[in-house]
Write a structure and sequence with these properties.
By secondary structure, the protein is an alpha+beta fold. Helix content is about 15%, strand content about 25%. The strands form 2 sheets. The chain has a 6-stranded mixed beta sheet.
Amino acid sequence: MKALAAIDPALPKDRHPRQVWYTSYGSNMHLERLAFYIRGGRPPGTTKDYPGCRDTRMPSRSVPVELTGAMYFATESPVWGGGRAFYDPHASGRVLARAHLVTTEQFFDIAAQEMYREPGVSLDLAEVIASGRSVLGEGRYETLVCAGQHDGLPVLTFTAPWSMDDVAFNPPSAAYVRYLSAYPEVPSVTGREPRAGPGGGGGQKLAG
């Protein structure tokens, strides 16, 4: 595995950057999957069409990183079946992820597609960069998280507003686990088991 890029946990000073590190801990770690969020289209074996970003250029850089926290599976994925992957930055553990250098506009459009919103609307990143967290809604992937900075730019991802101990665990499908476990080794271009939630079941962390 390539050496992991260091994330400085200090929050960036620039609240309005032109570029950010979109950091995926799920299927978008893979550039071929992320391409559908950027260029649009339907991934093989699925029934979901993605509109893509206004700017269809692929990331100028893509580096492996390690996030502090834990990944767990909950709710139901209409694409993969079984539980979706979520990130809890306050849980103990570590999560292998991949940071893609994209424009701020591209991050807005990728986030919108994950939130089942139409791309094309700008988000205010000032709160998440200043405090490390910004809740844009109650749905899954509607909470932005800033894990710090790399090369002076914010490391951003999104997750659910709840913690991993507040939701029932739903095991991921075998196909999803295989895809996530194939941690991408693409070059740079250019812990713990939680207690059961209210609905029963526990969480699960997958670190590459």
